[in-house]
Amino acid sequence: MGGTVDGPHGPVPVRRYAARRGTTSATTLVWLHGGGFFRGSLDLPEAHVVAGTLADRGLDVVTVGYRLAPLPGLSVVGRRGPRGRRRHPVPNDEVRAVLEVVRGETDGPVLLGGSSAGACLAAAVTRTLPDAARPDGLVLAYGFFHARTPRDAAVLRSVRGHRRLTHHPALLDRANRNHVGRAGDTATAFPGGEDLSGFPRTLMVDAEHDTMRASGDRFADELRGAGVAVERHVLPAARHAFLNRPGSPDSDRALDLVTAWAARSSGA
Predict the structure, then answer these.
(1) Which helix (H) or strand (E) holds 147?
(2) What angle do CA 38, 255, 58 make, to 5 degrees?
(3) Of the candidates 107, 143, 170, 210, which lies 20 to 30 Å from 101 by C-alpha distance?
(4) Minimal CA–CA distance to 7: which of 96, 79, 88?
(5) CA separation, residue 31 to residues 34, 68, 233 (Å)
(6) In this structure, are residues 205 and 162 in contact, taking their beta carbons and an 8 Å threshold?
(7) Which residues have C-beta within 8 Å of that of residue 265, sequence separation ≥ 6?
(8) Which residues contact 106 (CB under 8 A, 6 or more apart)?
């Protein structure tokens, strides 16, 4: 069911997916799509299909149509209108507003998560919240978390196809700079390398053949170093954005992992 949540920059589009009747979990997942911060929508499979599947398995899911950043190199395009493109911290503000509303609506556990850029947003928002307002857990799928993509030669050699170019670290870094702008605050936009103490338990599901795995590797180590309970899976032979390929073995495996982890986290 579609709708909006009042945010500090205007109404934020959301979709709500109610858990299938007969399930016992009272857990809600606030879920953020990917797209390099500047593309993506609530219609993406990694938003709509993922949410529907998890709702069928017993989770209440709320997907968030957070504000997109300007197009790289075309910053004047799409800036007009009530949902005009805006840089950080606007998308984080909108995610924070939705999370606050959802937490006020339920007595059960509230998880926050996302894929790719959505994973970064979820972790960045969590880091900037006071402990009492943080989600009860994080679900991070093939995310990247550092303003400058860590360079790992072995990871880069594993990437195949067009993503050897489109996901080259230099281009990923450019997208990150586009997200924050020239004078943007990278410390609040990218949680990697920052103080992660007090983070909630975290599930990370990454792809083996993915440039962004280097950031996931480092972020997982940083979380563990901060004393966070981390469960991490790197899917063998998987490529980036596997949740955008519904019915694929990698997508099915990831959704199984999310379902099992959420059930354990909620005590179900």
Answers:
(1) none
(2) 105
(3) 143
(4) 96
(5) 10, 15, 19
(6) no
(7) 27, 109, 111, 136, 137, 201
(8) 26, 28, 60
**103-121: buried (b, 16+ CB within 10 Å) or exposed (e) per residue?**
beeeeebbbbbbbbbbbbb
DSSP letter, residue 87: -
Pairing of strands 10-17, 28-32: unpaired
- Spatial separation of the C-alpha atoms in residues 33 and 235, rounded to whole Å: 19
pTM: 0.95
**Strand 137-141 to 202-209 pairing:** parallel
Which among 21, 32, 180, 203 has a CA at the least distance from the CA of 102? 32
190 in Cβ contact with 124 (< 8 Å): yes
* Cα–Cα separations (whole angstroms), residue 125 to 98, 160, 187, 209, 238: 11, 32, 11, 27, 27
- Per-residue model confidence (pLDDT) at position 268: 43
Inform me whether the pLDDT recorded for 206 exceeds 50. Answer: yes
Model confidence at 156, pLDDT cuts 50, 70, 90, reads confident
Asked if residue 211 lies in contact with residue 169, where contact means CB atoms within 8 angstroms, the answer is yes
Angstrom CA distances, 198 to 136, 229, 232, 237, stand at 11, 10, 18, 33
